[in-house]
Structures are given as C-alpha cells and as structure tokens.
C-alpha cells in the first residue's frame, strides 16, 4: 500500500510530510489551518506563475499530434509557458478584451489550449467549450456567457470546428475578437505544403477581427502584464458548461478560491515536480483541466498531451502503454470506459514509472479495478467529482486504506453530508449513519453558482443543523462507519418500475461480467403498465458474438433483484458516450422511447415513424409522423397509456 509513496526520494517525502493523507484524522489535521491561510495564492494565475518562476527550463507542457511511440514531441518549458501566457494576455488586452471579460476556448487539447486557458484566467474568465458540440449549442453557451472573444482552430482539413464556431457567432453578438490556432506547424515537414493547399477557406466573415495566436504572441510584450486585473479568491476565473447537450447547458462559475482549493490541494496531496501526467481526457472538461493540467502545473510537474483528441486520437489507445514508457509517465486520470478499452490491450511496454491514477466520472467496476492495478502496477484512487464542486470532491486516500467501490472521503476543506429532502425539495434532515440519501457537500471547492441565478437557487441550501452553504449533487449514497462515501445511484437515473426504485448499477455491474460485453448502460424504458421497465444497452468487445437471448438468460442468473432484471437487452455497435467517455444515457432513453412507441403503433396496425426531441417544457417528447395507414384515435389509444408525452407531426 505504501510502495508508491516510499518510492519517492527523501526530499519529496519531507516536502509532502504535512500532507500525508491516510485517515480522516489526517484530513482534519490539515484543515486546522483555514484554506485561505494555508494556500499562499489568491488566484490560479499566481499559482502557475510561481511554478514557472521556480521551474524555469524544466518541461511544462509537451504535445504529440498522434499516438505514435516515436512521433515528434513539441515541448514548452515553464519559462516559455509563462512568456507565452503573458504575451497572449497582453495581446488580447491590446485588441480590446477588457479585464474581467469572458474568453471562450473552443479547442481540442493543444499546448496553445493550456496557454489560452491560463491567459484567459489572467485577463478575465476562461470559458472552455467542447469543440464536438453542434454550432447551435456552442452559440447558446457563447451567448449566455456574454463572451467577447473566442480562441479556436484555424480552418484545416478534417475539422469542422472553425465552421461551427463561425455559425455559432451568429447567435453571440457580443463576440468581437476571434483568435485562431493553426495546426500546420505540428505536421511533418513533408505534409505541410499539401495541407496548406488543401486548407478550406476561412469561414469567418471578413468584418470580424480575426487574429493568429502565434503571431499575436510573437508581437506582444512578454516580460510583464500591461494591464491591471485586481483578482482575488472570490473572483470568477472560469465557466464550465455541464448538463444538457442540446439547447441550454448550465454554466458553472468557478471562483479562484474553488479552483485553488481543487488544483492546489490535489497537487499537494499526490504530486511533485517529478511527476509526468499523461493527458488523454479533454481539457474543456473539469477532470482534465484541474486534475491533469492545473494540479501538475501547480506541483511543477510535466504534462504531456497525447493528441488533440486524447484517447480518441490516432493511435493513442493502441500505443497507450508505449506512450507511458516513452514519456516515463507517473500520473494518469481516466474514466472507466477508457480503462475498459485499455484493459482489452495487453500491457506491451515498461509502465513501471506509473504511480497514481485517479478514476472518476462514473463507477469503476470492481473486477476492472483489480485487473488494471495488477496489470500495470499503478495505484488507483477512485474519486468523485462534479463540475459544481469545481472537480474532485472526494477521493480514496493516497496513503491510506482504499475501499474498492467507494469514492473515499472529502478532500481537505470539503465536508460531506447525506441528506433527505421533502417533496418540495426542501432539506428535511441529515440521514443517519449508513442510511442512503442525497450526497451534499460544503466547503472551499464548491463552485460559485451557475451563471443563471435561478438555477443556482435550486442546488444550494442552508441547514439549520450545520454551518455553510450546502450543494445538492443529485447523487445518492451513504457514508460508512469509517467516513467513506459510497455512491449508490443517481436520483435522476433511477429506474422506477411501478413505484419500485431500481438502481441501474445493479444491471450494469451484472452484465459487465459477461465475457462478450465491453460496456453496458441500463435505463428505464416506457411501459404502459409499470411506468418504466428496466432495459439494458450493450456494446460488445471487438469480435465477440452473443445473442440478446443469451444476455437475457445471463441477466436472469446474475441480476439478483428480480424486479431489476431487464425486460429487453439491445446490442449496439457502439454505445453513445459523452466527450469524457461516460455512457450518455439521454441518448439511450430517446432510443428506447422511439422503439417502444414504434412497437406499440405497429401492434395497433399503424404505420408511422417515431423520433424523440427535447421539449423545453415537456422534457423528452415523442414525435409521431404517419408514414402510411394511420388513424389518430387508434394512435391515441396505443400511446396514451404511457406516461411519456407524445405528439403527432404531420
Ligand atoms: P460532471 O459534472 O460532468 O463531471 O459529472 C458529475 C457526475 O458524475 C456526478 O454528479 C456523478 O453522478 C458522476 N460521478 C463522478 N464521479 C463518479 C464516481 N466515481 N462514481 C460514480 N459516479 C460518478
């Protein structure tokens, strides 16, 4: 258990002595000093600047365009990183971006993404946006944030990001500045001339002020900032979007305090300047932004971005072990779907440099946890995070007992409580020890609210029995007698079969044990009698073959709660996943509604197609379009028994 810690040399151990976190008593001892007194910084900019000053020529950010184990690597030293951050912040300011303005980054993982993130937080508020979103969603986020500048890719082959940004700008009138990053310098010399010729036309209107990031950095002063931004811990440093994938995602505001309380605390707990973090998750999401980028930079470590698309990049998965060997990576963070995909690839390189890996975002199946550790020697710390808690809210202790299946206890300066709420959503009481309720947090890492105050009111609450502002997570769980948190489900993911609550995790864990199964997502499909029936979607391992009936039989045998046995199991070529790789259940729910409604109409002898849309008032709503023989009254009879709303579309 202590191997990884004792492998550090004496100096590191001394440096991290105060921060050894093995038990809850250690956490309480650390917290004796209030966070504001313990942390020497008042902004993340100051935190990274301090590393840049002390680490000088040491490598800060490396990048390779593809996952090839001998591909060219581009590296920025700490000194160069700070020079670029300063120059880019100055350049944006010279072009009219004011201190405190919001600067959006619609970017994949590039060294420039790190520079732009830090420059945006130096000058104002950074708004990382998932570049895979559709133009409409990007436009909605830009508009809601009031961003005045956007940093994105220059038009290039095989990417539609600039085109989507150009379209998105039509709904974001406040954006006056666009800065582009050209991928050309990263191509091998032989390909550069061809790529330059094949480059698509710029999609941005000529009236827009469009600049080139590298040229701006070259021409702006890089010795010191030429503007004043009074920035303290209560100021907002970033907006991260979360939730909806269409229409209106929520914008979570991160204060410099919450960002420091996460990144700096994690760095002090597990990282040193000797660490090398392999970054294969997208930086626009909190997991990679804080755990894999800001925390290692706070420690003075080295981050290595393996391809702009991370795990999805060319060759990254297939060469993952070789990339670890090549970069002598010590630190990883990953989500269970990526670990399951890596698990299918035998370790074919020396990965003995690995020390820690944080797994989070979704539950990590126990069997996978054990197999991954024994195959790689890495020490897995399962953590629990959410955008509203800035990132990590709890984690298994790096130096203490890890309980597989639990998400550990809150990180220093965070408190947890399991709470019960009444039918109106009002806090009614704190749950008894071991009792399941909604997991709630309070403390320094809790975010500053959503950009939309109405949404903020819905997640925060006061407790008459405990001080502080408390955050509702929407996740269900319990705390054991040692203080470890166990997530038992997600309030909104529960399958409710005739009033009986079913945890989808029961079905997912059971089916994941089948040798042919790679990923499982269980949801409730509409049912006229029970309201919902459990249903599972399955993605098979490459080359595996199994029938749906065989999987149903397996489920009957292995899902021990009778009511939770899935009524239907559907095999999909690939399960829909979010950008970080979590199974995207809303897409599965839509598929299930369309399928069940389609079957009900066919049974009534009606010919129609069914699609499912997100209605702002009704939620998921089925739209029925007649395609042949059809009768409105019969359709009503066939579908009105379902609780899910539907409408006819002519
Ligand atoms: P996001 O804000 O996109 O990072 O999503 C946060 C949500 O991910 C949480 O509210 C949980 O539902 C889920 N989550 C995060 N970590 C875990 C974990 N270790 N196990 C289960 N669910 C998790």
CATH superfamily of the largest domain: ANL, N-terminal domain
Query: Looking at the structure, what is the overall shape?
Result: globular
Strand content: 25-35%
Bound molecules: adenosine monophosphate
Structural class, from helix and strand content? alpha/beta
Topology-level CATH name of the largest domain? Rossmann fold
Q: Judging by the overall fold, what is the CATH architecture of the largest domain?
A: 3-Layer(aba) Sandwich
Give the % helix.
25-40%
CATH class of the largest domain: Alpha Beta
Number of helices: 21
Q: Care to count the β-strands?
A: 30
- Which regions contain 5 or more consecutive residues with pLDDT less than 50? 1-17
- The N- and C-terminal alpha carbons lie at a distance of 64 Å
- Tally of structural domains: 4
Largest sheet: 6 strands, antiparallel
- Structural Rg: 25 Å
Mean pLDDT rating: 93
Provide a descriptive summary of the structure in words:
This protein is α/β, with parallel strands linked by helices and 650 residues long. The strands form eight sheets. Strands 17, 18, 19, 20, 21 and 22 form a six-stranded antiparallel beta sheet that branches. It has a five-stranded parallel beta sheet with strand order 4-3-5-6-7, sandwiched between helices. The protein has a five-stranded mixed beta sheet with strand order 12-13-14-15-16. α5 (44-55) packs across α13 (286-299), α6 (78-94) crosses α11 (213-219) and α12 packs across α13 (286-299). The chain is globular and about 75 Å long. The relative contact order is 0.08.
């Amino acid at each position: 258990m202590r191997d990884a810690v004792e492998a550090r040399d004496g100096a590191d151990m001394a440096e991290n002595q105060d921060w050894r976190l093995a038990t809850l008593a250690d956490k309480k001892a650390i917290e004796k000093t209030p966070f504001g007194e313990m942390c020497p910084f008042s902004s993340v900019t100051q935190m990274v600047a301090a590393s840049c000053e002390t680490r000088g020529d040491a490598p800060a950010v490396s990048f390779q365009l593809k996952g090839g184990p001998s591909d060219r690597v581009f590296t920025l030293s700490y000194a160069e990183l700070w020079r670029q951050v300063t120059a880019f912040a100055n350049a944006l300011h010279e072009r009219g971006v004011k201190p405190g303005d919001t600067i959006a980054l619609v970017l994949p993982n590039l060294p420039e993404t790190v520079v732009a993130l830090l420059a945006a937080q130096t000058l104002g508020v950074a708004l990382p946006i998932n570049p895979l979103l559709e133009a409409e969603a990007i436009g909605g986020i830009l508009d809601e944030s009031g961003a005045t500048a956007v940093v994105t890719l220059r038009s290039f082959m095989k990417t539609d990001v600039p085109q989507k940004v150009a379209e998105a700008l039509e709904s974001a009138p406040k954006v006056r500045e666009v800065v582009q990053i050209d991928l050309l310098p990263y191509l091998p010399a032989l390909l550069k001339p061809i790529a330059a010729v094949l480059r698509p036309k710029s999609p941005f209107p000529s009236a827009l002020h469009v600049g080139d990031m590298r040229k701006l950095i070259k021409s702006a002063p890089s010795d010191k900032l030429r503007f004043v931004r009074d920035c303290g811990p209560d100021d907002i440093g970033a907006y991260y979007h979360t939730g909806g994938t269409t229409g209106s995602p929520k914008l979570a505001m991160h204060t410099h305090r919450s960002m420091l309380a996460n990144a700096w605390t994690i760095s002090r707990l597990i990282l040193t300047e000797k660490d090398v973090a392999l970054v294969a998750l997208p930086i626009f999401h909190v997991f990679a932004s804080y755990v894999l980028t800001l925390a290692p930079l706070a420690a003075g470590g080295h981050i290595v971005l393996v391809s702009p698309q991370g795990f999805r990049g060319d060759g990254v998965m297939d060469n993952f072990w070789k990339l670890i060997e090549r970069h002598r990576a010590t630190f990883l963070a990953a989500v269970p779907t990526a670990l399951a995909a890596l698990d299918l690839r035998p370790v074919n390189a020396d990965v003995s440099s690995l020390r820690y890996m944080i797994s989070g975002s979704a539950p990590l199946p126990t069997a996978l946890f054990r197999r991954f550790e024994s195959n790689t020697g890495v020490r897995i710390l399962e953590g629990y995070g959410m955008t509203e808690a800035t990132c990590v809210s709890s984690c298994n202790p790096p130096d203490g007992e890890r309980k597989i299946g639990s998400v550990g206890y809150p990180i220093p300066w965070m408190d947890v409580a399991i709470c019960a709420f009444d039918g109106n959503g009002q806090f009614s009481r704190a749950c008894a020890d071991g009792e399941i309720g909604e997991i709630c947090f309070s403390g320094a890492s809790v975010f500053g609210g959503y950009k939309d105050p109405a949404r903020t009111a819905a997640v925060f609450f006061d407790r008459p029995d405990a001080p502080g502002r408390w955050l509702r997570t929407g996740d269900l769980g319990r705390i054991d007698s040692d203080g470890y948190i166990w997530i038992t489900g997600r309030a909104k993911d529960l399958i409710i079969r005739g009033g009986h609550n079913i945890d989808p995790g029961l079905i997912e864990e059971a089916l994941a044990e089948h040798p042919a199964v790679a990923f499982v997502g269980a949801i409730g499909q509409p049912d006229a009698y029970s309201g919902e029936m459990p249903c599972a979607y399955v993605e098979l391992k490459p080359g595996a073959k199994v029938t749906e009936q065989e999987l149903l039989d397996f489920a009957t045998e292995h899902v021990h709660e009778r009511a939770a046995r899935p009524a239907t199991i559907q095999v999909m070529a690939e399960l829909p996943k979010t950008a970080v790789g979590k199974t995207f259940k809303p897409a599965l729910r839509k598929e299930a509604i369309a399928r069940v409604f389609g079957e009900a109409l066919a049974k009534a002898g009606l010919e129609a197609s069914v699609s499912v849309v997100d209605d702002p008032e009704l939620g998921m709503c089925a739209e029925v379009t007649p395609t042949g023989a059809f009768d409105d009254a019969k359709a009503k009879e066939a579908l009105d028994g379902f609780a899910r709303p539907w409408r006819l579309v002519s």
